[in-house]
Design goal:
There is one protein chain. This protein has 104 residues and is mainly β. It contains one helix and seven strands, in the order βββαββββ. The chain has a four-stranded antiparallel β-sheet, with no helix packed on it. A three-stranded antiparallel β-sheet has the order 1-2-3. The chain is 7% helix and 51% strand. The longest helix is centred in the middle third of the chain and has 7 residues.
Length: 104
């Protein structure tokens, strides 16, 4: 909880494994007043697969979403990362910047 407000709730569908077509999926966030869901990000998994050739995407597991507070030129913002597990590594995919990094 920050400044009297609860943290936003964000979900990604599907949660367990990537679809075989690697098509679009949505990262959705609960409205602040809990009245419904809004699409926060449209995730084009084809772009990620193309950016990381040679990976075994059939063995990929979606671990979840991670939000991180950032400050850029004095402006506070939140960055959201899609966390994926591939054989032998973890991929962190920044949804807003469309950048991926991997960790072994």
């Amino acid at each position: 909880m920050r400044d009297g407000y609860s943290e936003p709730v964000m979900w990604l569908s599907p949660l367990s494994q990537l679809p075989s077509s690697y098509s679009l999926t949505d990262a959705i966030e609960m409205e602040r007043d809990y009245s419904g869901w809004l699409v926060k990000y449209r995730v084009d998994l084809n772009r990620l697969v193309a950016a990381l050739p040679g990976e075994d995407w059939n063995a990929c597991v979606v671990l979840g979403l991670s939000q991180e507070d950032e400050t850029d030129n004095g402006v506070e913002d939140t960055s959201t990362h899609l966390l994926l597990q591939l054989p032998g590594k973890i991929i962190s995919y920044n949804l807003r910047e469309d950048l991926a990094s991997s960790f072994r």
